[in-house]
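protien #1 (seq + structre)
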Amino acid sequence: MALSRLDNLYRQVILDHSSHPHHHGILDASTNQIELNNPTCGDVIQIQLVVEQDTVKDIRFSGSGCSISTASASMMTDAVIGKTSEEALALVDDFSKLVLGEELTNPDALGDAQMLSGVAKFPARIKCATLGWKALEKALTEGNQTELNSHLHCD
């Protein structure tokens, strides 16, 4: 019975992030920007960041995607604001491990995103859940790219 309540709580948090995404929209000025799409399902995301002194000061995302993709991107933005680039990239790695069903030493660092661990049971949804995180990784590692389109190809 308690597990059912916990599952319901997780579903509610995911639905809330999907229906009312945090940090959704466009930044007036950004230091890093990327667009990434998943041609398998049609999800598209644009990530804009303001990185100052190697710290994520602000982040926004826009685009169109399923509820898992949108909720995950919303959770990701909450998790990385105020983090250094290195810390944000470590969170990307941790999230990838989480949705692949691997154990994490500190899942709480992911904030609400840890609630997406159940995606591991649905391999077709992993690409949806990781799209925003992969876009963040590319935006941080490829620097000041203002017009960069990329495809996420997952085998």
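ok now protien #2
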Amino acid sequence: MKSLVLTLVVSIIYFSTSEAFGQLPVKPLASQAELLKSSNKKLAQNKKLVYDMWREFLEGGHMEVAEKYFAESYMQHNPNAATGRKAVVEFFSKFTKPLAIADTIKAKVVSIVAEGDLVVLSFVREMPDPNDPSKTYTTTWFDMFRIENGKIAEHWDSAEKMKFN
């Protein structure tokens, strides 16, 4: 009897709360121009450094600007890429071709947060729904960078190891 009651209670909770706790879509908090602002000049500079690197290097595919943005000793915590400025150029050269550089980041930016020597970019990420492949859902992707002497010295994200052929 106790197991039947427990099963009934768990079922009621599950089915009655699945919509109540349904995921809200991830959306940008403000325009990218607004997200770049800070009352602290150094934090605004750090945000702009990471923002411009993202536009020019990552989305624009301009590997020649790496020295402008990355410290030679750049440390990488993504399990798919090696450490060092040379390594980040080699890694992204496999996936990108130079394009016109956009005025804003093409991806949907949720927020740009700076504190001390760290800058965090968060993005809307659309994923296939594992329960219904005809649907998608949004989640958030985070990249964090540490700035040292005006260059990106270190990077973290939530990437998992990928299989490369």
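The chain is about 30% helix and 30% strand.
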